[in-house]
What we know:
Layout: E1 3-5, E2 10-14, E3 24-25, E4 31-33, E5 48-49, E6 56-57, E7 62-65, E8 73-75, E9 80-82, E10 86-91, H1 97-106, H2 108-112, H3 125-130, E11 132-134, H4 138-182, H5 184-187, E12 213-217, E13 231-235, E14 240-241, E15 244-245, E16 251-254, H6 257-260, E17 264-265, E18 270-273, E19 281-283, E20 291-293, E21 297-302, H7 308-320, E22 326-327, E23 330-331, H8 338-343, H9 351-395
Helix pairs in contact: 1-4, 1-9, 4-7, 4-9
Amino acid sequence: MKEIPLRYVALVIAGQSPAGSEVHDLENGLAFIQGNAEFGAHHPAPRLQCDSPPKSAVSGDILVSVRAPVGALNWCDREIGIGRGVAAIRVISGADSRFIYRCMEALRVDLQSRGTGSTFQAVTVDDLLDFRVPNRSLDEQQRIADFLDDRVARIDQIITARQQQIRKLDALAARLSYEAVVGAHEVDRRPSALTWTPTVPVDWPVLTVGSQFEVELGKMLDESRQTGDHPVRYLRNTNVQWDVIEVDDLKSMDIAPHEFDRYSVKAGDLLICEGGQPGRAALWDGRIEEMGFQKALHRARTRGRSAPEWLLECLRVCVDLNVFAVENGQSTIGHLTNEQLRATRFPFPERAEQLRLMHGLSVSRRAVSAARDTSEMSIARLTEYKQSLITAAVTGEFDVTTASTRIPGEQA
């Protein structure tokens, strides 16, 4: 397959940043993008404007990211100012811009290999001009572009359907939690069983948190302070994810033995995030002895008839309902206090009933998770297939005029 440099079939317009005083939030002016962060699925989604940008692209240009991630692509659908993170490729007569776009998709690794920079990879205008594309006649380019337009659109439709399935499964998982904790009859009384947007905490007329478990807020001990020869590892907010506590990145400090118990974590304790996603929680399994916790985490120890697994599920529902994001009508996102936790009301059926409900929920959740995994694997396979199809068509590995019309996963 013969190749030619991109400079023979296109112009490259390097983006340039205007003075900061000339850039404003997008209203009615000329849209302006700085880099691939404003790229959409097909066209850019600008957030800024600049009425007199030093460089601009026009409708039909190919927009390419020249900074990490190098090679990201979008179609320009209007006149738009472009900053230093973007270049515009304007195909000249004798070439099909759709074919050039597919070439850049297929051979992106070649462009990325030209990137330089120890911190952020970047390519230059010369790198783009020297980028080599297959040398094909205009008729061949158009046939390949037509073929790929059809096949890629159909593949993308299947991927979109799988993504919609995943969103429905996520909504179902949330509904299952809500039904287990509050009761199925309460779900159906809501305006939408799958979209919850209350603006005040849920008023569950049941026992308060304080009567069922005790909550302790950790504190940041001064790592430079030597309180005794007793190094202890401790958990931070970033270690706690839903249902799992990660221990790959633990820090440690010296702490006096008489202080350790107050800030220690034992098997069965629930760690609740104060910030980030307030209320995110997981159970500690005791896999490491002498584990502590620091501020930005709450430690909860259940007592009486409360199962920690039940409390974890109650917290999950509270997060879904934004219970911890609202207090007295003012947003408190990012900070969950002991007072908020103790004021929250949770349903507490008998312990045996808690465990029965949790077992049923676990069985249902595994089925939902398996279906979600299937959809995600399908998306991964389709994405890989799309990339290989584009590469094979552009490089001439098969003749598009005799290629099969079948798409894996497409309904007959």
